[in-house]
């Protein structure tokens, strides 16, 4: 997540000083920087000792221009993808620093008790064992920004609660019968559809079949369409998900706007990865209290033996 950092400088001349963070510069270079929301922080404000809520006059204080801090990064980011790159072979995560951990690629280092230096590089099973602690540390950056909030007088609660808090899906090595013989129920990446044949991407123009025709509509050749039939409706998706294991997470306490950031992360021995998300779109329904459903696919991208990028879906998330 990239963006701008601002600071109040001179009440008579310069009101706000904006600088683009490192991630924001990367997004701007790729033409991907989009500013949708703005937030304000009082991290650098001096309050009076008496009330603790009134900002002191800083005219006589030495003032520094705004600078980038570690807590300005809120989410893990993958390196930018170049046009010639195979997205399945992209390097690991970009450097990310929180109060307790530093992430560089697939390496995670734990800070010392005083937080001044790195004391331990996690290896092996230490990474998945500390998964909850690492995730909590990532969200700590959001709190350390000290964003000024707005009290909603029409909201009964300002808390955030989700139920259930956790869900464990058990994987078993089931077998399937094919041509009279038992075979493992796993898929070979090379035999799976590549990104340009994946039905989960068939709703996007760049992944649709483009027949070779001229400007008059005349065919220039006969080429077979290898794309699978796409999912065209929410009902088609539900048919594919029938009899699959699932869980309903209820947001029991949240804001009226339900502004939620979700970041799926995979922890393995000696490894941490940010899973790939496909936005499948929004679908209308007849629910008057919560109109529409937003569907996301969460999974991983592999490179098959031919060098093609293949998406393997792990979860399907439906936001109602």
List the helices and strands and how they pair.
Layout: E1 4-8, E2 16-20, H1 22-29, E3 93-97, E4 101-105, E5 107-111, E6 118-121, H2 126-129, H3 131-144, E7 161-163, E8 175-178, E9 181-184, H4 234-240, E10 250-253, E11 265-268, E12 271-274, E13 276-283, E14 293-303, E15 309-319
Antiparallel strand pairs: 1-2, 3-4, 4-5, 5-6, 7-10, 8-9, 11-12, 13-14, 14-15
Structure, explained:
The protein has 320 residues and is an alpha+beta fold. The protein has 2 domains: 141 residues, no CATH class; 142 residues, no CATH class. The protein is globular and about 80 Å long.
Give a short summary of the structure.
The chain has 320 residues and is α+β, with helices and mostly antiparallel strands. It is 10% helix and 26% strand. It has four helices and 15 strands.
Please name the defining characteristics of this protein.
single chain; 320 residues; alpha+beta; 2 domains; four-stranded antiparallel sheet; three-stranded antiparallel sheet; 15 strands; 26% strand
